[in-house]
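Hi all, long-time lurker, first post. I run a small reading group and we've been trying to get comfortable going from sequence to structure in the token notation. Rather than ask abstract questions, I figured I'd post a concrete chain and ask someone more experienced to write out its structure so we can walk through it together at our next meeting. Sequence below, copied exactly:
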Amino acid sequence: MIPSPAIDPHVTQETFETIRESGVVAVLRGVDEGDPVAVAEALLAGGVDVIEVTADNADTPGTIRRLQSAVGDEATVGAGTVIDGPTAQSVIAAGAEFVVSPSSHADVIATCNRHGVLVAPGIMTPTEAAEAYEQGADLVKVFPAKTVGPDHVAALRGPLSQIPLLPTGGVSPDNAAAFLEAGAVAVGAGSALVPGRPSRTETTRRSPAAPNGSVRSSTRRTRADGSPSRRSRVTGTIRFPGLEPYLVCVHGNRGDDG
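-- Answer (accepted) --
Happy to help. Here is the structure in token form:
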């Protein structure tokens, strides 16, 4: 019988509840090239407080350390695209509070369990979900979600309702609500939240006192090297379910949210 996360002793319940309450995990790929702290601050201003830094370059541990130092009191910072035990060990040592993979790897799960860090391996089928959960996964990442859609999440939830699901890959403002309604505990969003190069971050806050839901805007603009610029401009917002009254648009590198 597959254990429930409520009674499984390896579950890092606080991190799990933070992810569930947030509803969105922001996947930052290639943010090391710009200013990761500015990107994180924009996400926080937009209501997204769970941030995943993908482990696809040598400076990922350094980026995690910088984010923990700057916004660790407000955000839950983790690592994604972790596909082997040594990488899991490295990001955990840097302060990652959760680890996500595009696929399932027993050594990654074991390393996270050993350190008491939440782990979410990637799966697609019921068999993969059950195997990963039995190996010690806290939740499983349905990836790439865009190829199967919300109906697949609902179908997995039928016989495997005890396994929390995190659809990622192709999640956008257009389909996020459908994934959550299908039973996902949260969604992972990368390119929909971070759609350009990390040359600037833009945050828009809805003014409760403004008529007809108009917005009050404030923008921080940074150069490619991370230094501030005097120029500012708002180009748009990203609306995800549950994020209002704060709406955020962050420009970073495109990627497959893995």
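A couple of things your group might point at:
The two ends are 29 Å apart (CA to CA).
Residues 13-250 form a domain with the TIM Barrel fold (CATH 3.20.20.70).
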